[in-house]
Amino acid sequence: MTRPPLGRSGLGCVTFGREITQRESFAILDHAIAGGVHLFDTAEAYGDGASERILGDWLARNDCRCSVTLVTKVTTRFTHSHVREAIDASLTRLRSACVDIYLMHQYDAATPLEEALEAMTAVVESGRARFIGCSNFTAAQLRRAIEISVQRGLAPIAAIQPVYNLIARDIESEVLPLCKQENIAVMSYSPLAAGFLSGKYTPDRNALPAGSRFAIKPAHAGIYFHAENFRIVERLRALSGRSGIPITRLAMAWVMANPDIECVLAGARNSSQLDNALDAASNPLPAELIQEIQACIG
Predict the structure, then answer these.
(1) If we measure between CA atoms, which residue out of 247, 223, 225 comes closest to residue 234?
(2) How many domains does the chain have?
(3) Which of 4, 89, 94, 116 fits 78 for a cystine, CB–CB 3.0-4.6 Å?
């Protein structure tokens, strides 16, 4: 199976149209392409389609569709009819004839996996996507999807998109080994734990910084706001003080040091936030410092 083109870092476009304007989004996209980022990840769910529209407008303005890897996702209800409607709507917003990678955004227990994979295969066969994959699947769900694809001669799972950071490490035990075995490309997201690893939050959920990811999406707090996670942040902050390296750079570099992660997606609300990912990709930290970051986990 040919692997989809990814690159070491990619731009997650979840903030477009939800947290930042089109003008601000365009500035980040310009900065990303100038910095060598060529993978742009979006979804129909991001900003209720606003992210795809902004990205599509930028691609049209710059006439650069052929030079980027375009990823988007169908949210749920993976029936034949709905997936067909969803990809057509996404392509209209993206102003593109096809996407490079089309993902199931999450596992949908209401749709038989066989039908979901058949529907996604039809997208590839129609030329609307080059590869398919999944996001937020467990190892068991991914394994079953692989089995069905092989048994039925369907389009293979070529890429997955799981969360991965110093706190959310579940994929290490089963998902990453399975992907390595099956030659599935891994593009992880949320390397800074939705900003939690920036160190700007306190345990007081009533004191969330205005405009921050957790203020906009309070459900994230339930995932990360736990005593041990705050202790990890404090250890990371101490290491940052000793090394002189920003805490966000340490957290990003640790993810990028994992050889089983092919591409790390970074979201941004301004260009300077994207610079953290660009620096981590082009200037890897020494192995001994990565080990010190690892020690912060406990």
Answers:
(1) 247
(2) 1
(3) 116
